[in-house]
User: Fold this.
Amino acid sequence: MQIAVIGAGNATDEERAAAYSIGAILGKNRATLICGGMGGVMEAACRGVSDHGGQTVGIVPDTGDGNQFLSVVIRTGLGHARHILVVQSADAVIAVGGSHGTLSEIAVALKTGRPVYGYRTWDIAGVEGCSTAEKAALRAVSAASRSQSYRTRPAGKGSL
Assistant:
């Protein structure tokens, strides 16, 4: 399953701690983290996944390398337009804090029917607010495991 974690690149210490906890849960559940690949919430979530044996994908805005905890870097040169790619690559989305960039990703997720779980983020219809970062991560894992796109992936090499 692929879960996007979205939030500010200039996150607070509390937001980074929450993102790390979310990443740890995603890593333990063998989810692939999809994010914008930069600092703040994105880097903290990647570190949490990486520390727990998981894979991370950063869809970066430029042609750089993103943060040091990325397993895969997708260099886009798209700036904020990459938000669409981040969200549409995910079976579920977790928003941690954030500003207008996070809001745009939430809007795309809601428009395209992806479930969005929020921890101290925008309070808007369609975002399921969670009282803890851990609840947001567990709800996203549960939703992603039920996702039609996750369940209907093509069979791997050698399958009949």
Summary: The beta strands are 2-7, 32-35, 56-60, 72-75, 92-96, 116-119, 127-129. The CA atoms of residues 33 and 56 lie 5 Å apart.
